[in-house]
TrEMBL record:
UniProt GO cellular component terms: plasma membrane; side of membrane
Protein family (similarity comment): Belongs to the early nodulin-like (ENODL) family.
Cited InterPro entries: Cupredoxin, ENL_dom, Phytocyanin-like, Phytocyanin_dom
Coiled coil spans: none
Domain of life: Eukaryota
Protein name according to UniProt: Early nodulin-like protein 1
Residue span, Phytocyanin domain: 34-134
Transmembrane segments: 157-176
Keywords of the record: Cell membrane, Disulfide bond, Glycoprotein, GPI-anchor, Lipoprotein, Membrane, Signal, Transmembrane, Transmembrane helix
Organism encoding this protein: Durio zibethinus
Gene3D superfamilies: Cupredoxins - blue copper proteins
Gene Ontology MF terms in the entry: electron transfer activity
Record gene name: LOC111289087
Keyword Phosphoprotein attached: no
Keyword hit for Oxidoreductase: no
Amino acid sequence: MANSIFRSDYQSKAFHVLGLFCFMLLMIQEVYAREFTVNWGLHNGNNAETYNQWAEKNRFQIGDSLLFIYTPNKDSVLHVTMEDYNNCRVEEPISNYTDGHSVFTLSHSGPFYFISGKQENCQKNEKLVVVVLADRSNRSSSIAETNPNSSNTVSSVFIGVAASAAAFVASTFLLGF
């Protein structure tokens, strides 16, 4: 009789640990943000179709980022409005990136428009539209658009993983393992 009670208690503890481990995996999934590399520049003259086809094949989430790689002093990336995108207007961008290794964080759902800083390149279809999916997690997003040297995505992932690991370790000690 005592053996069956002990087994039941052991199974209960194992069940709790397994549940907490699954919760930890969900937490890691929740804060995971990806970085997408965009090799920016004229490639065979048909970039808008290539860039936009690439974008349509990916699922962008709030907190993900785009890493634009290009030759500095020969090209740049402009974040622009839809109207400026459609007309290749480079005069008043929302933001301008020129360092050749530019990171843009996708801070909210909806479309983001990018064009080359060289109007003639934009007219040759060096432009991109990225559509970010809506946040369905019922949590408010505090992620802001960042400059090219920001590390908000990495720090939020680290905090989420560290918190999940701490919860797992604490629960293990509380359950007597």
